[in-house]
């Protein structure tokens, strides 16, 4: 791939204003060409981005429990009742995650419906007024201004306050569950900006949906609730302190992501499978039950509060943000000889999905190069909103597809425009509506509600609008636009089928083809299989379509993967994130562990001088986060024997609390350090620059024996098939006379293209 001049960043505006410091990349065999703006020392101001290179700015979540002496002492002190209380606390936290996620989904749904309702009502009144007297250009301007205004507010909050809230957030959560620490991805400010931004973008008429961001919102809720405090608000509730570590936090974030899927689609089982299939690399049976519990609470909470809002208390008929409506088996049953047609539709969905992903890939590269400033990002979002309104109005204006009004129409904002009395403009049912309502109309409107030309024109225009919209500096998802595009061409497919058959009766209802097309298009773009099958089945409320949807999604994935990766994987790679896939590349099996390790190793003695520790931690050229602890061998020049692992975060806490041997002997320390001190500092450990160490203290010694992990992961130097783990790994020879280490993740190289190494 071509080098990209500007850096990609999920995280902040500061990356673009970083002076002479660029994003470090894990270099491969290909030479990196620098830009002309080189510093006097020869270092470029910005390193050109290449998605085949992996950024060193990302760190791994510490999923490995450090079983040091402090940990073992705490475990020994805990009684059986204490362990049972911890297990009950996990269930309580999952229940709170589901409740709060469902409540947020309810607020988003109500806010979008209110804002969109007011906007469409004003525009509809204006169109009806000027249809008779002329001057519909005023209606167009009004529509474009309303859209741009709402989108502008949402884009400003994202671009200037919290850039990581842009998009659906699913790629970031996938990375987090995969073990990658994405900065600020689960902060409270991110949640607030995400919720506010998605309300503005959906109500602003963009080709987006509010379902995808619910997954990110649920994950943020889980990360906050499970810690029992808010670091953003500097408020500590002194609860759930035991769970303040990456190992526990990861499980709760998995539950939050599943609860988000459940709230979005009313699919609790699909939410569990989404966390399993798309993100989490660590799983167990009890975690499955807790995640399913959180998902059920989430959809029930949303259902309950929406029933109160709709003045139908207790009517739990709205399980998710999107309601596909009920598909009755008798009216839209399928036959065995239709299965090949469904497979063909899956192939079409895979081809269209690959085209969508490729176009969006090149568009993202363009944005990286030229639309990297916040003000430009806001202007682009406003431009897309205005163009979307203009295209929608033009399609409605020039459409002559008039359909008679009937009791089966489910549109709330029907436009008559130039149609005769008692008729409505069919094109307006797709453009002049929220995307969720448009999808439901394509699924359930009776045969004859749309002309083939209307569906064809809508598919083409909305395809490119959705492709252009994804990647803007707004909070938005791609699920609903994908379903809407697929439902349009799927219904068109069903309408055209009778023209190639002798009898048209067996293709009477094109609604089932709209459903299959929606599944094919969504599968072709995001490449989900198992979880998406269950989500679609749960959302339709009819298991009859389980087999066709499964076949369609498998076909779409196979065909799409032949050309390009899924949309989320593309954006993850563009961020240079070291994402660990389930399987290593086939060409990596000839590599041995020794070939991906680094030497010499920066390590500490079990009894180390404080000045040495401070100097190593302050050295930016060795910005490692894990250090081997060694015991010197009696023979002089031989390297020491490994005896443990100490993390940067642990060393910083030790320096902050002045845990020095001399102070302990002189009894100047207030108390013995406990695990609570490390948990209180988690997750925002102070930088080493904020730790003051006097010159006298630099000469003190620090005993690491009590705090290091005595059982680090080590691998033989000739080992070929290393399991997929996220650890600080040490490579040792049989005699322990040699030691290599990989503080960066060894699998960065193992999981990239073959050209990297």
Automatic annotation (TrEMBL):
Top-level lineage group: Eukaryota
Record-annotated membrane-spanning stretches: 91-112, 140-161, 191-209, 252-275, 287-309, 339-357, 378-398, 462-492, 513-537, 543-564
GO molecular function, one term: chloride:proton antiporter activity
InterPro entries named in the record: CBS_dom_sf, CIC-7, Cl-channel/antiporter, Cl-channel_core, ClC
Region (Disordered): 1-47
Keywords, ordered alphabetically: CBS domain, Membrane, Repeat, Transmembrane, Transmembrane helix
Stretches of the chain forming a coiled coil according to its record: none
Biased composition (Basic and acidic residues): 30-47
Cellular component, GO annotation: lysosomal membrane
Membrane topology: Multi-pass membrane protein
Gene3D superfamilies, per database record: Clc chloride channel
Localisation: Membrane
PANTHER family the record matches: CHLORIDE CHANNEL PROTEIN CLC FAMILY MEMBER (PTHR11689), H(+)_CL(-) EXCHANGE TRANSPORTER 7 (PTHR11689:SF136)
UniProt protein name: Chloride channel protein
Organism: Esox lucius (Northern pike)
Lineage: Eukaryota, Metazoa, Chordata, Craniata, Vertebrata
């Amino acid at each position: 791939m071509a080098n990209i001049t500007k850096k990609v960043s999920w995280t902040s505006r500061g990356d673009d204003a970083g002076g002479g410091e660029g994003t470090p990349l894990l270099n491969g065999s290909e030479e990196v060409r620098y830009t002309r703006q080189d510093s006097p020392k020869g270092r470029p101001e910005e390193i050109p981005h290449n998605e085949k290179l992996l950024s060193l700015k990302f760190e791994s979540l510490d999923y490995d429990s450090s079983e040091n002496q402090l940990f073992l002492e705490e475990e020994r002190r805990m009684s059986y009742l204490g362990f049972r209380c911890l297990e009950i606390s996990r269930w309580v936290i999952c229940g709170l995650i589901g409740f709060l996620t469902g409540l947020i989904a309810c607020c988003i749904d109500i806010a979008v419906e209110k804002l969109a309702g007011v906007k469409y009502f004003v525009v509809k009144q204006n169109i009806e007024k000027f249809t008779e007297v002329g001057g519909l250009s005023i209606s167009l301007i009004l529509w474009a201004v309303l859209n741009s205004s709402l989108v502008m507010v949402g884009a400003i909050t994202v671009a200037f306050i919290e850039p990581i809230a842009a998009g659906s957030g699913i790629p970031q959560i996938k990375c987090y569950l995969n073990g990658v620490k994405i900065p600020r991805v689960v902060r409270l400010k991110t949640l607030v900006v995400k919720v506010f931004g998605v309300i503005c973008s959906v109500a602003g008429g963009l080709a987006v949906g509010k379902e995808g961001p619910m997954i990110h919102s649920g994950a943020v809720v889980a990360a906050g609730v499970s810690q029992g405090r808010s670091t953003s608000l500097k408020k500590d509730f002194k609860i759930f302190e035991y769970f303040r570590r990456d190992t526990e936090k990861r499980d709760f974030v998995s539950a939050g992501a599943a609860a988000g899927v459940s709230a979005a689609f009313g699919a609790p089982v699909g939410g569990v499978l989404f966390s399993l299939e798309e993100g989490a690399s660590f799983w167990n049976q009890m975690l499955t039950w807790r995640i399913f519990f959180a998902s059920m609470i989430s959809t029930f909470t949303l259902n309950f509060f929406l029933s109160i809002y709709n003045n139908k208390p207790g009517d739990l008929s709205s399980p998710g943000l999107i309601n596909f409506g009920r598909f009755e088996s008798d009216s839209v049953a399928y036959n065995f000889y239709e299965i090949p047609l469904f497979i063909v539709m899956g192939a079409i969905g895979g081809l269209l999905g690959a085209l969508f992903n490729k176009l969006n890939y090149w568009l993202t590269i363009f944005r990286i190069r030229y639309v990297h400033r916040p003000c430009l990002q806001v202007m682009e979002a406003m431009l897309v909103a205005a163009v979307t309104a203009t295209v929608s109005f033009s399609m409605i204006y020039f459409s002559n597809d008039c359909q008679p009004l009937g009791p089966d129409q489910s549109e709330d904002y029907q436009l008559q425009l130039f149609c005769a009395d008692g008729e409505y403009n069919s094109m307006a049912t797709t453009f002049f509506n929220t995307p969720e309502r448009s999808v439901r109309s394509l699924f359930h409107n009776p045969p004859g509600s749309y002309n083939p030309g209307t569906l064809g024109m809508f598919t083409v225009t909305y395809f490119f609008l959705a492709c252009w919209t994804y990647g803007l500096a707004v909070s938005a998802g791609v699920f609903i636009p994908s379903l809407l595009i697929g439902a349009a061409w799927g219904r068109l497919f069903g309408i055209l089928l009778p023209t190639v058959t002798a009898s048209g009766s067996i293709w009477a209802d094109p609604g089932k083809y709209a459903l299959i097309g929606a599944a094919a298009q969504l599968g072709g773009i995001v490449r989900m299989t198992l979880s998406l099958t269950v989500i679609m089945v749960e959302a339709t409320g009819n298991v009859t379509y389980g087999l066709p949807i499964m076949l369609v999604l498998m076909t779409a994935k196979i065909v799409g993967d032949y050309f390009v990766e899924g949309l989320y994987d593309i954006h993850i790679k563009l961020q240079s994130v070291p994402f660990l896939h389930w399987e290593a590349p086939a060409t990596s099996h000839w590599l041995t562990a020794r070939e991906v390790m680094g030497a010499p190793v920066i390590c500490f003695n079990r009894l180390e001088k404080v000045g040495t520790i401070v100097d190593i931690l302050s050295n930016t050229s060795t910005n490692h986060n894990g250090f081997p602890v060694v015991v010197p061998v009696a023979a002089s020049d031989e390297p020491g024997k490994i005896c443990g692992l100490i993390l940067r975060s642990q060393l910083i806490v030790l320096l902050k609390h002045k845990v020095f041997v001399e102070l302990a002997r002189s009894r100047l320390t207030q108390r013995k350090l406990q695990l609570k001190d490390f948990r209180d500092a988690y997750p925002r450990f102070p930088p080493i620059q904020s730790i003051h160490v006097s010159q006298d203290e630099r000469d003190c010694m620090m005993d690491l024996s009590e705090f290091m992990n005595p059982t680090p992961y080590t691998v033989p130097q000739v080992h070929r098939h290393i399991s997929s783990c996220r650890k600080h790994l040490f490579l040792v020879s049989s005699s322990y006379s040699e030691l290599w280490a990989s503080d960066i993740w060894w699998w960065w190289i193992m999981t990239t293209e073959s050209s990297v190494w």
